[in-house]
């Protein structure tokens, strides 16, 4: 029998999707399971306007509304819905509650050079002690500081800052909310004090009035507003603040059996880390540049933000724009057939962060480091995938060093695991098994927190058990360990 139906919106930097989750108890007395159905998928394309890169937030709202409509048209009756998105970005509301302009995309160039500038004002140690994050140019702190430096009138007029998932929930409910996991991606939330860092905001000229008190994942925000219900002809279902940061939703769905495990959330970004009960704010964490992000169920996630499949996405975009659209399956196939260990890049080299010209950037990296320059699509894709796999090894070893844990293998989740070659290469590079699944981890984690909020699931551990019982996992065993060890040495010399 059907115990509950939930609707999850998972918005990544490359695409968004709506999935229905049915929590089902079968007749044969087995434990209840979660069943997924994808009902809507849409691209998420940033738009350059003048000097700024923006998200098309109204289009995303439109697609979410479309997803809600489709759910009911297809006969589902979700009782709740949740939204998770990429981290750090936000919209500003004026005193009438209207959105001030289009939210900036985190890859907007306005934050260039600001890490160093803010370091100079505040000090890197202090920033790390009080923010816990890896120094990424996109962190909310730098975006707001960029607006301050540009004397943005929007910043003067703004009354409330809503992080992207809260902004979208606000459009649907009219209720302003601030969910904890997203709050911890701003670098303005102090993980030790568990409070907004108003002292830091004052020093940078960021108005502290903008920030709402964070609520724990699993908190109900409110029902769909009357206007939305009338427009879509749907009942006022409840919107829940899930683990609204997509990374944290994905980690919620990792089907790990034990308390200590390592994971890799593999999408546009690669987030590799391990779950802790408290933030680890040591000098070693700072020097190895790991983040402490707030997770669901009172956890902290010690993780490394790695450039990820973004590099391949950008190459694909370039090739597609030249007229021959190539699928990720085809690219993986070409990479499979390409010569192994021909050339490597350091995926986290800053040049790979900004959009455009990616193929050329890869070639010049190889040239500068005296390696064969990759020419074909297959050679380029192979170079990216092998380099990522080696970077994962480095990050996994660093996570072990920081925590003193030893991990017997790596759980991989997210859209990137559809690239089976990447999973295989990762197992090879690590010299340890990879357990891949589920693909839709963020949407599943989103659903699991809806089930927690409705009392169907009593917390993170049982949520993970439900994920493990409901979705298959594919194992990859290490191969060609000696060649990988050689490649790892070559990779280490690239810095
Ligand atoms: P995000 O949530 O950040 O938008 P996803 O989790 O959807 O990202 O993962 C997107 C990545 O997954 C793409 O960059 C691509 O490399 C990979 N991918 C998606 N579909 C496939 C596929 N069919 N085969 C291989 N790789 C794929
Ligand atoms: C992955 C992600 C990651 C952030 C980045 C902006 O989608 O949320 O955790 O650091 O986007």
Automatic annotation (TrEMBL):
Transmembrane segments: none
The enzyme's E.C. designation: 2.7.1.-
Cross-referenced InterPro entries: ATPase_NBD, FGGY_C, FGGY_N, Rhamnulokinase
Carbohydrate kinase FGGY C-terminal domain ranges (all copies): 262-453
Enzymatic class: transferase
GO molecular function annotations of the record: transferase activity
Iron is among the record's keywords: no
Carbohydrate kinase FGGY N-terminal domain segment(s): 6-250
Pfam families: FGGY_C, FGGY_N
Keywords, in A-Z order: ATP-binding, Disulfide bond, Kinase, Nucleotide-binding, Rhamnose metabolism, Transferase
Family per record: Belongs to the FGGY kinase family.
Protein name in UniProt: Rhamnulokinase family protein
